[in-house]
Amino acid sequence: MAGWSVRDILDQSGRNAVVTGANSGLGYVTARELARKGARVLLACRSETRGRAAVERLRGEVPGGDVRLGLLDLGELASVREFAGSLPYERLDLLVNNAGVMAMPYGTTADGFETQFGVNHLGHFALTGLLLPALLAAAQGRPASGPAGARVVTVSSMVHLLGNIDPRDLNSERRYRRWTAYGRSKTANLLFTHELARRLAAAGSDLVAAAAHPGYAATNLQTAGPRAEGRRVAERLMALGNRVIAQPAEAGALPALYAATAPGVRPDSFTGPSLAMWRGAPAPSRRASWTLDDRAGERLWQASEELTGVFYDALKGS
Questions:
Q1: What region does 177 belong to: left with phi over 0, alpha with psi -120 to 50, or beta?
Q2: Burial of 64: CB neighbours in 10 Å, binned 0-12, 13-18, 19+
Q3: What SS3 state is found at 210?
Q4: Which end of the chain has fewer CB atoms at under 10 Å, N or C?
Q5: What is the per-residue burial (b if ≥16 Cβ within 10 Å, else e) of 122-152?
Q6: What's the pLDDT tens digit per position in 248-293?
Q7: Cβ(77)–Cβ(52) under 8 Å?
Q8: At 18, which helix (H) or strand (E)?
Q9: Could you report the per-residue pLDDT of 92-127, keeping only the tens digit for each?
Q10: Can you tell me the distance from the alpha carbon of 124 to that of 99, in angstroms, rounded to the nearest whole number?
Q11: CA of 210: how far to CAs of 190, 198, 263, in Å?
């Protein structure tokens, strides 16, 4: 893993991939590098305008790349179902749950969930469950540890260390603090990965569920929250941090790309930057003990099924 970079990504020809939030930042770089190595990539984007621009840009950077656009709003379960129902592939080798929002003012999704929990966790929980039959089809009979093994990679954050989820207040209705809510949504990403990996192992599936985080990478996530609230000073400070401190999106995408493509990636592994979880080449990352709690993972899973109406029946029958 030492010094791993995009040059080390093995041939991805024949693999079908979905990357959420692929119109910019980490998602765009992830989609581009997968396409550069031969994968067929579906860019799952909320905005059709920005999504089409990203597809055209990507095709310019990777001539001949097999990329297309799919419209997906993770804050609306009807959109998640529509996207999954129109998947252009019979089998799906790779799902990268990358999209998200960060430190937003309090709000709710179309279905009434607190925005960060609803988009960052519940939207991806529903999407993964609905795409599970195609993922299991790709995993069948293929070595999980090989570069062609089927995988679900969920992008969390080092900010998950801010706190565990509160099972009595998943939607932050009692008290809302934007950064705490963000950290809890990223903890939910890791608990989801932990529980999915456990259930896949129990079912005897070769599908690998892993997680990654970018460290501090310069994307539009940092400025979106302050901009939404009109906090111009905070927005400028975040933009300054992106320029001076953060690593570029090309570096921030490396942990997810490693988890998605490198041989030997273990179920429930957590990959991040090597230098203090902040920047550098991909390496095993520190994670809070509460993200490895079987009981907490099961409780979150059951609550997520009830809230989204998405049940992993394909896994139960595998």
A1: beta
A2: exposed
A3: strand
A4: N
A5: bbbbbbbbbbbbbbbbbbeeeebeebbbbbb
A6: 778 889 999 999 999 999 999 999 987 655 567 898 999 999 999 9
A7: no
A8: strand 16-20
A9: 999 999 999 998 899 999 999 999 999 999 999 999
A10: 9
A11: 9, 11, 13
CB 20, CB 97: distance < 8 Å? yes
The two three-digit tokens of residue 5, written as one number:
């970079």
Within 10 Å of residue 318's Cβ, how many Cβ atoms?
Answer: 18
| DSSP line for 235-303 | HHHHHHHHHHTSBPHHHHTHHHHHHHH-TTPPTT-EEEEEETTTEEEEEE----GGGG-HHHHHHHHHH
With the CA atoms of 236, 239, 241 and 245 taken in that order, what torsion angle do they form, in degrees rounded to the nearest 10?
Answer: -160
The strand pair at 67-71 and 279-284 is best described as unpaired
User: Annotated active-site positions, please?
Assistant: 182
Cα–Cα distance, 64 to 51 (Å, whole number) = 18
* DSSP bridge partners of 140: none
Residue keyed to tokens 């950077």: 61
Residue 87 to residue 135: CA distance in whole angstroms: 12
Query: CA gyration radius for the chain?
Result: 18
Give the separation between CA 285 and CA 263, rounded to whole angstroms: 18
